[in-house]
TrEMBL record:
HAMAP family: YabA. GO terms for cellular component: bacterial nucleoid. Zn(2+) binds at residues 95, 97, 110, 113. It comes from Brevibacillus antibioticus. This is Replication initiation control protein YabA.
Length: 123
């Protein structure tokens, strides 16, 4: 292999690496979209589960005649569980604030999310 051949080969490899680099960038964008979609689906799923649980709790209350205090307690447990899920979502790197909900936190902590978290489950 003469020197010119080596140079041509190097140029071709460089070009292929450039293409791969571009492809990796595109895949990274796709992964971000999928992760955000997944986070939003997790929250939506939790909301639906909470609604289902409330419905079940409500019908059980009717059947067994549970006291209003017990009903309120069950409701608070569901709210607490939803709060825990949001806190976990934030810890996993997603926004849980109204401003950027469900999108990936690319720049560390978010003040909107943190103010929501410091409000606690009862608010
Ligand atoms: Zn946020």
């Amino acid at each position: 292999m003469d020197k010119r051949e080596i140079f041509v080969k190097m140029a071709s490899i460089e070009e292929r690496i450039g293409d791969l680099y571009k492809e990796i960038g595109e895949l990274k964008d796709v992964i971000v979209v999928l992760m955000e979609e997944n986070a939003q689906l997790l929250v939506e799923n939790q909301h639906l589960r909470n609604r289902l649980d409330r419905k079940k709790t409500g019908s059980q209350t009717k059947q067994k005649g549970t006291s209003p205090v017990a009903k309120e307690k069950a409701k608070k447990a569901v709210v607490g569980e939803g709060y825990d899920n949001l806190a976990r979502l934030y810890a996993e790197g997603f926004h849980i604030c109204n401003v950027h909900f469900g999108s990936l936190r690319k720049e560390g902590d978010c003040l909107f999310c943190l103010s929501f978290l410091s409000g606690g489950p009862q608010k």
